[in-house]
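Mods, move this if it's the wrong board.
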Amino acid sequence: MRPSLTATAIALVLPAALVAVAEPATAAVSEPAPAYSLEATVSPAPLTAAACASDPTCVAAPAPRGGTADDYAALNQAITAAAARTRPAVLAGDGTVVTPPVTATVLLGAGAYRLTKGVKLPPDVDLRGAGIAATSLLLDPTVNWKNFSYSFLVRPADLQEPGSTNLVADLTVNGNCRTGAGAPEPAALPARPGETCDFRTALGTNGSTGGGIAAGDRWTIRQVRFTNFEYFKLWISGTTGVRVVDNRFDNWGGAESDGEDNIGGGGRNDGTVIERNQYDATARGNFFDFTNAARTTVRDNIVHTTPAVAAARGVTEYGNLYFEGVAGATVTGNVLEGSHIVLQSNARYSHVAPNKDITQPRDTLVAGNRILDSATVGVAVGYEDYLDADGTGGTTGGWDDTSTDPADHVVRPGGGNVVRGNVIERPRQSGILVYGNPAVKDTADTITGNEIRNAGFGGSTAYNSGVGWFDTAGIGVSTGTGDVITGNAVIDDQERPTTWYGVQLGARKTTTAPAGTVLSGNTTTGVIAAPVRTAALAPEAPTGLAATPTGLTWNESYATGNPIAGYRVYRDGLLAADLPVGSAEVPGNLLDADAASLESAPAGTAGWTAGTATKVSRTEAAGAVGAASLQVTATGSGQLSAYSRKVSVTAGATYTSAGSFQAGQAGTTGRRVRAGLAFTDAAGKVTRLASSNAATVDSATGWMTSSYGAAAPAGTVSVQAMLLVEGAVPGETHLLDRLGLVAGTATEQWTDPAGRAGGYQVVAYRAGSGDTSAVSTF
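Not the wrong board. Structure tokens:
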């Protein structure tokens, strides 16, 4: 199975005195995916014995012998007889078919044909059964399991012919992973989910023994049920014109499978069509995964998965559709329940042929799909390369270019993908993501006309894409130039919403960002924070989330290039409080109320003292909280400093100071401001430590917060909050307010005055913008 986006959550159980544990959200009602059924949807009725008897090109195979008898010889003899009745196609000089081939058919009767070797179909020989639930081919590895090592029950003969066709239809292939299991009887789960196949334990086989069908050029696989396999169920590699129509994938009747793909392969296969197939929730592995292919069509398939089955097998998700290094694909009309669609390069494989050279997702259409309850993202488009030994990426090339230099590889750029008109409901993460390395994407993608409903349902609020962090949004784009995002609807109609943003541009914790993105005609309904969020402008997320019997506490957010204007607290996705600058009081403040707020005129400077070239005074010019603040005035050039009263400490314990700063008069140049600590030991030695954050620059409008925490050095007996302003000139003034000194790190708090139950989220936000930080969840 392919790796997926990794979700990360911060979870905390709140004490009962404060809130009750939040109840799970309720999913919006929507039309479920059509139920899994063995009934044919577009296939003709199975060939009858009477019809075979009247057809000179049809050979009726002997009935299966039953028990443990080997049916291989008799079946192979029938195939040889049918091959003698075929006639190859007549081709023109350019390879086009002038006269189609004469094909022959081997008709299997009802019952289970037990095979100790895989059968090889010659060109133009069809293999048909009496019905998907009537005829089965059963893998028997007991005579010599190596007959099935990296091999299949049905595969092409070694010699192929141009223009030939083959059909495999109306039967079940059973890999015997669970001995005697796999009858067409519905079952919610295999008897022993996720365990090793029986024959591997009993016979010591390798982990790639016994696949279902390996297709050849122009093969059609129709109305075949795949069940109970260790190896790939259907393998399509290096082929042309394969059609996979109206098949079924399950583990009914107590069957089970290893985690290999149900439809796998690649090998530059061309023109494969996969349509009208169904995948049951009891199946295992990806529904589809091609690595290196062109012009693949995957349409009108139905995939079911459930969290219960995933959990029983120790995985988070299954049933996904992976297009890895696939160009020019069409993915339309599929209904996916619990799974999702991924377009990405083949860079995650060992960097040897056929994956030495890398193909990015390109010119693929993903349209008209219904994606329900995805375990991660609904549609993900990722761009990824690898570095050669010299530390450089690949050399740009086209589909027909291959590398000849052992020290270099070819990378075929991606882009031009269109994600259009899909309905994505309740993905645990975002609805649509485009992310990765901008150096390997040279064409804009288009995301248009999609409906994304209730993104983030049941999931975390932030997750790591591997190349930056996303927060839950309808659409997220972190790489590319000129991508078009138009006419999409992002809706959250839950009582407890989970969609934070309509569109997120850029990812956090990465140096890359999209450029020139075109946004038009998009609508949002019920999103929590903002229709559009630019991640590059978002401050860091609050950290140190904690709950006490009387309130919620957290640490000051670290300012990057984006000043923090305050914090918002949400209850179950609904705004509960807006705290400009921060909470009115610093929790557990070791400074008294006068020193923290400067609101008491009789208290004067409340114990604050001036450092070098500094004068301190109380002023009522402005306050971050209340009407008054501490004013520091430069009596010389350089650093301004103010110190609180000394507070007794425990050596080795952590202490944190915090303060909010504002330039004192209009026109004052913003200065770098820093919070710090001054530790004093028994001998009177003072150790001064302070924040090195260069982004905390104050201004004459709004308040800039700085905080700093450190452990008290050995021998420390007292500590002072130390607040600094750098680069001042004589006469310059700055205001300080909401001043704090705490044991520990938490300098922010909020208590729900109603004491209501629920899950809480806290975000930091920028001044004058809807760009909030990552969402931190209680």
